């Protein structure tokens, strides 16, 4: 684009509508398209003698713009998940969008470093003018959290109140609605529950665990050791015990979704499982980067204000530190999945019918129905697992 547009009018309107430059006038201008007039008129420092206030405003504004883009990507990602099976093309789009969110998050972490070029003394020059405004009130940040699946009751309390009370009634409505909408966590859960071949996999997985425990006993391990392992695996084999952990907030995914995730982790080298595995990795990366940002931001706050209260009146650094926690990890079950790994040589062989059904070449040739009925019929032929795995 021609940068000389800048010279005339930052909104690019006068020259295109009134300038009389022939056909060229009808062309879109750089400044007009980007609405630079409006955009660059939005930085209004409140303390004219504070040099760094412009930086403070711009950094926050840039965050909000990227939050907008993240929400845009998250909405599309959730829409794709809604109907996703193991179909390759959709998964590629999904993984590229998740990857884009990740790249933006990296950029957001880098911005903390830019903010830290401001010294605490320079911040003091204008901080008082900000009270009671705070990043705590970022509606878009809260929407991202809710869309990802952070639950209201898992949040740290701020000033002994729930976060929504800090917003005006219009925003409170928007936030409540976003809490009630289906989150990314739920969409991923439903997708994992649809993993083909789950029933037979779970039956074989349980058999492998039993074999492993028998071998431990045979190797003359102490009864205590064997029972410890048994109790450990029971928390995943027994649906009731798993659900108790969900109720305590220790786990988030349904029992069936955990099975799907384990299956994808175990068979990640199979062509049909490698993209789903990448997607699970990306989800963990997104979770991880959000938590790293929380940590970086809390350190920055401590550097700027020590242990003073925040501008909206929270305990400041103490409050922020409390959010760097597993309670804020949406896909915590994926992080903890390795608790239920078994030795590689005990991982059950994937049945050939499932392998074939998952071959991307077959998927692309349309041999797999859109609704995955080929794979379902494979499952239907397998034994139905009915035995109870809950003891005591
Ligand atoms: C000098 C720089 C900054 C300081 C000292 C600072 C400090 C704080 C403090 C103390 C809080 C707790 C709430 C309160 O009492 O105000 C907070 C919350 C928050 N700030 Fe900042 N902040 C800074 C920059 C930023 C930037 C650049 C962003 C980007 C949008 C941001 C986003 C947030 C968010 C989203 C929260 C809510 C976190 C949560 O509740 O989990 N902050 N900040």
From TrEMBL:
Residues 373-392 are annotated as: Disordered. InterPro entries: Trp/Indoleamine_2_3_dOase-like, Trp_2_3_dOase. Binds 1 heme group per subunit. Gene3D superfamilies: 1.10.287.3810, 1.20.58.480. It catalyses: L-tryptophan + O2 = N-formyl-L-kynurenine. Pathway: Amino-acid degradation; L-tryptophan degradation via kynurenine pathway; L-kynurenine from L-tryptophan: step 1/2. This is Tryptophan 2,3-dioxygenase. The keyword Iron applies. It comes from Porites lobata. It holds the Pfam family Trp_dioxygenase. Belongs to the tryptophan 2,3-dioxygenase family. Heme-dependent dioxygenase that catalyzes the oxidative cleavage of the L-tryptophan (L-Trp) pyrrole ring and converts L-tryptophan to N-formyl-L-kynurenine. Catalyzes the oxidative cleavage of the indole moiety. Its cofactor is heme.
């Amino acid at each position: 684009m021609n940068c000389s547009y800048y010279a005339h009018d930052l909104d690019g309107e006068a020259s295109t509508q009134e300038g009389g430059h022939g056909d060229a006038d009808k062309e879109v201008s750089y400044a007009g398209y980007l609405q630079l007039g409006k955009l660059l008129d939005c930085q209004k420092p409140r303390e004219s003698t504070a040099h760094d206030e412009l930086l403070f405003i711009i950094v926050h504004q840039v965050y909000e713009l990227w939050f907008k883009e993240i929400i845009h990507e998250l909405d599309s990602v959730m829409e794709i998940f809604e109907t996703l099976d193991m179909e390759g093309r959709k998964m590629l789009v999904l993984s590229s969008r998740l990857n884009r969110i990740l790249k933006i998050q990296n950029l957001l972490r880098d911005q903390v470093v830019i903010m830290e070029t401001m010294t605490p003394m320079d911040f003091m020059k204008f901080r008082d003018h900000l009270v009671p405004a705070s990043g705590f009130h970022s509606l878009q940040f809260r929407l991202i959290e809710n869309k990802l699946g952070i639950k209201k009751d898992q949040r740290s309390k701020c000033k002994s109140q729930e976060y929504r009370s800090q917003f005006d009634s219009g925003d409170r409505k928007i936030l409540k609605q976003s809490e009630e909408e289906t989150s990314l966590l739920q969409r991923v859960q439903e997708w994992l529950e649809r993993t083909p071949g789950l029933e037979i996999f779970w039956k074989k997985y349980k058999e492998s665990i039993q074999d492993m425990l028998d071998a431990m006993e045979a190797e003359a391990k102490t009864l205590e050791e064997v029972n410890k392992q048994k109790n450990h695996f029971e928390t995943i084999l027994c649906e009731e015990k798993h659900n108790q952990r969900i109720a305590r907030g220790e786990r988030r995914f349904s029992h069936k979704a955990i099975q799907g995730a384990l299956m994808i982790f175990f068979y990640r080298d199979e062509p049909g499982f490698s993209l789903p595995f990448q997607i699970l990795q990306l989800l963990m990366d997104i979770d991880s980067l959000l938590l790293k940002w929380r940590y970086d931001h809390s350190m920055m706050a401590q550097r700027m204000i020590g242990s003073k209260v925040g501008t909206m009146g929270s305990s400041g650094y103490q409050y922020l530190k409390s959010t760097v926690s597993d309670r804020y990890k949406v896909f915590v079950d994926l992080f903890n999945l390795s608790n239920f790994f078994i030795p590689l040589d005990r991982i059950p062989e994937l049945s050939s019918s499932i392998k074939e059904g998952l071959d991307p070449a077959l998927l692309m040739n349309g041999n797999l129905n859109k609704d995955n009925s080929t794979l379902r019929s494979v499952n239907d032929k397998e034994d139905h697992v009915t035995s109870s795995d809950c003891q005591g």
